[in-house]
Write a structure and sequence with these properties.
It is a single chain. This protein is an alpha+beta fold. Helices cover 37% and strands 29% of the residues. It contains two helices and three strands, in the order βααββ. Helix 1 packs antiparallel against helix 2. 2% of the residues are buried.
């Protein structure tokens, strides 16, 4: 279940989306790492092509 915090909608490159078709675990890992670098303090909550929904956990 997603908390009551509003989610931010973002996108990522096709390189990572292509991984989703062949290796789900690697896709999840790459997605988390991608957003950890670009949006520290945010958590990936949902992924639905072409969007990634992030929760702001900074505080």
């Amino acid at each position: 279940m997603i908390d009551d915090k509003p989610l931010m909608k973002s996108m990522m490159g096709e390189r990572i989306w292509k991984i989703m078709k062949v290796d789900q675990e690697k896709f999840k890992r790459e997605t988390r790492e991608y957003f950890a670098r670009g949006y520290p303090g945010f958590t990936v909550k949902r992924v639905k092509y072409p969007f990634v929904y992030l929760q702001d956990d900074r505080n």
